[in-house]
Amino acid sequence: MSSENRNVLTGIIVKLIGGIYFVDASDAVYECSARGSFRKKGLSPCCGDRVNIETLTDSRGIITEILPRKNEIIRPPLANLDNLAFVSSTCEPPPNLLLLDKFIAVASFKGITPVIVFTKTDKQPADSLCEIYQKSGIEVYAVNSADKSGAVSLRRRFANGLTAFTGNTGVGKTTLLNNMFPELEEKTAQISRKLGRGKHTTRHVSLYKLQEGGFIADTPGFSSFDTMQYGVILKDELAGCFKEFGPFLGKCRFVNCSHTKEVGCSVIEALKEGKIQPTRHQSYVEMYNEAKSIPEWQYRSRKK
């Protein structure tokens, strides 16, 4: 392809291996390198980035521009997420609500829609768990891991946009994804056979394009979710990451109210009136106390 025939296309990075970026653009996938100027500017393209590429051939190109990100997470590196789906089992292992609430807060802080999926409802009902989060204004689903029918509505929910799934080992995340996206399992298996290693030893983030539109992130090490790697939430910003606190913020007796134990706190009054779920407020208090102990260097890094 001559320089006169080169095109500039806009696409999304769907895979990164060894410095080669695979960009889905104009119904094709291009193997691209990135301009050295990105490194000089401290920029690093990652999966989910919307980019402009200049085509070199029918299958190769070069990334010329990284378009502005609406959000990003560091580990695994992903950009422009629309949804983070947190998979938690009702039993075996039992749900860790504090960890779940930390996930939700970080997603909200990053401008990513949190979605909760409770699995193994055939072994333990999820009614009480669903009630906590539904009353907190958070989208929640409950599925029977042994029955694929529950996966249909979830697939429709994630048909568009970019979605990543996370969940601790043993919660049934793999079964859920396989039930929702059989083609995802097949693609992963094909790559595993080609690379000669098991499908659970993925070392790279990959985005899989769905027939209905949208992308699903297949991510290595996502179960070892460390909220501090996703963003430092300062104590004064934390309340805004709890959606159900919204109507009561700014109505406390004291301007600098921490919403943990103060007299005249509108959030605590709402808790007493049943407008805020006790487990959610407990999580908030623990997270607030953790945020108070964030080292100064992490405050400085947030400001950069």
Strand neighbour order, sheet with most strands: 10-9-8-11-13-12
**How many separate helices?**
11
> Which fold does the CATH topology of the largest domain refer to?
Rossmann fold
| Cα separation of the termini | 42 Å
Anisotropy-based shape:
globular
Task: Describe it.
The protein is an alpha/beta fold and 304 residues long. The chain folds into 3 domains: 3-67, OB fold (Dihydrolipoamide Acetyltransferase, E2P) (Beta Barrel); 73-224, Rossmann fold (3-Layer(aba) Sandwich), CATH 3.40.50.300; 232-302, Probable gtpase engc, domain 3 (Ribonucleotide Reductase Protein R1, domain 1, Orthogonal Bundle). It is 31% helix and 23% strand. It has 11 helices and 13 strands. The strands form 3 sheets. A 6-stranded mixed sheet has the order 10-9-8-11-13-12. α5 (173-180) packs across α6. The longest helix has 15 residues, at 278-292. The radius of gyration is 21 Å and the shape is globular. The two termini are 42 Å apart. The model is unreliable at 188-202 (pLDDT under 50).
The gist of it:
By secondary structure, the protein is an alpha/beta fold. The protein is built from 11 helices and 13 strands. The strands form 3 sheets. Strands 10-9-8-11-13-12 form a 6-stranded mixed beta sheet. It has a 5-stranded mixed β-barrel with strand order 1-2-3-5-4.
Secondary-structure topology with pairs:
Blueprint: E1 8-17, E2 20-25, E3 28-34, H1 36-40, E4 50-55, E5 60-66, E6 72-73, E7 78-79, E8 83-89, H2 97-110, E9 113-119, H3 127-134, E10 139-142, H4 149-157, E11 162-166, H5 173-180, H6 182-195, E12 206-209, E13 215-218, H7 227-230, H8 235-238, H9 266-272, H10 278-292, H11 296-302
Parallel strand pairs: 3-5, 8-9, 8-11, 9-10, 11-13
Antiparallel strand pairs: 1-2, 1-4, 2-3, 4-5, 6-7, 12-13
Helix pairs in contact: 2-10, 4-5, 5-6
